[in-house]
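Review this today:
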Amino acid sequence: MSGEELKRKLGLFSSTNIVVANMIGAGIFMTSGLLMAELNNPVLMLVLWGVGGIIALCGAIAYGELGANIPEAGGEYKFLNELYHPMLGFLSGWVSFIVGFSAPIAASAMGFSEYFFRAMPSGMVILTEKLNPELAKTLLSVFVILLFTAIHYRGLKFGARLQNLLTVLKVVLIVALITGGILSQNGEAENFTPKESISSGFDGWRSIGLSLMWIMFAFSGWNAATYIGAEIKKPSRNLPGSLLAGTIIVLILYLGLNAVYIYSIPADDIKGVISIGGLAMKNLFGGPAETLFSILIAFALFSSLSAFIIIGPRVYYSMARDGLFFKAVARIHQRFEVPSNAIILQSVIAVIMVISGTFEQILTYMGFALGIFPILTVLAVFRLRKRRPSAIKLSGFPVAHIVYITAGLLILFLAYFERPVESSIALLTVLIGIPAYYVFKRQRAYS
């Protein structure tokens, strides 16, 4: 027998690790340079990181309640499918398939390559004797995706152990970066003083909206445990607990790390830098520290890439079981007990993204597309409470939910006017899912 059900194997520690691993990835290690170029104000950048964390925490409160009451694989797909309409659930899963997991896998792999070659410039020289630098980075990114796909294809138990190890190491690394910044005397408190101001009027608000959208990408993953709800032990307690604990941990780490970036690097030098962690360590402790921490950050990005490869296929598996995706994607491997075809399909999409886009383009496309369905999902808590008066309830209702919904709508509105091309492509991705839904629905009717 191949088996048709996922098994509950993950406790609170493993579930929280998956949340933390999903959140701490390419975003925190690669976006601050882009943010500074957009905002021209280190204090405003730090404030927006805090605002992003509060928004994510509000979302985690809402998703925790939904996950405690609907502890199944699929996250938003299951919530929207059950509380609204199957088409909305399908569209959220469709976006997760194309954008929600495959794109962050691509971004994490690209982040690994950026940091690896900052740490190993001699390796870059060797490779680029026959290849141009961008092609060398692309090939390394593709290799990393294929490697971790192979690892998680072989089962959740080993994959979860590896995930726990990578996540703990990543958190230790960030704490070391923050501690190093605190202890070092080579930074400048003056770097926190703004030397330029953000554009006034609507232009300034557009920049803030886009920046918050990028920051929310860095926080994306606060909802990670809901995607593996069918594999979490005691989900009514452990699922919301993992979301809240993971989000708070990451918020603290992000604020500390960005403070170190600002302390160690003048604002003009931060602008546009992708591998910002390596530059910070170079300024604080010299070239050897830059090499060491660039290597460590490169490998730390494995943790988020690994977590996305674990979670994404569970969404596609859930859709396929409901007859709203390719039937083969619902297959559970007889030996390894994982949705094997879904894992392979996700890997293919991620590789295509690595080959076809730049980090900033992927970041903006992801940020906009991923901002749509969480708003609808948080709204679903109101429907849940109305339909199920006896449902498990978390505190924070309705203030946290209103904060998340209002902030989410404003970010999408402002970001669209700042980056209309990437935002329009994201909207087009969602719209293409509508005819796809009816195709799969018709396929299910005739099967």
Remarks:
- The CA atoms of residues 97 and 103 lie 9 Å apart.
- Residues 287-321 form the longest helix (35 residues).
